[in-house]
Amino acid sequence: MLSHVFIGVTDFERALGFYSALAEVLEIAPRFVDRSRPWAGWQSSPGPRPLLLIGHPFAGEHAPGNGQMVALLAATREQVNRAHATALALGGRCEGPPGLRPHYHPHYWGAYFRDPDGNKLGVACHAPQDDQPRRA
To answer: What percent of the chain has pLDDT over 70?
Structure first.
């Protein structure tokens, strides 16, 4: 359904560090970094789309969207917890700690935060606790 999501940022290097750390926790592969534009992207697996992109807004002025949120998919609840902690450690602001959100569905484990530019993000795991991959 989605081709890509573009998130406008004001400080590209700060945002690159923030989103690179989140992508690493969520095991999302980097696709490119082009500091000359500046913009960067991460790629879904197994296919090449949708992409998550960050960069300076095309219109030039950054304004976080009112009521907009990008939610990233996590394979496990632990990834949600780590992504939220990583975001806060890198200057993000908590908008809702990790936990069950049964009003969405019985297994929805999510967390919410804003990036250093004020963009609202979520991380969600939809798998029941018993169906989550086990780490060796």
So the answer is: 96
HEC sequence for the chain: CCCEEEEECCCHHHHHHHHHHHHHHCCCEEEEEECCCCEEEEECCCCCCCEEEEECCCCCCCCCCCCCCEEEECCCHHHHHHHHHHHHHCCCEEEEEEEECCCCCCCCEEEEEECCCCCEEEEEECCCHHHCCCCC
Q: Is the peptide bond before 57 cis (omega within 30 degrees of 0)?
A: no
Span 86-127, pLDDT tens digits:
999 999 999 999 999 999 999 999 999 999 999 999 999 999
- Cross-strand bridge partners of residue 55: 8, 39
Helices 77-89 and 12-25 sit at what angle, rounded to 10 degrees?
Answer: 160
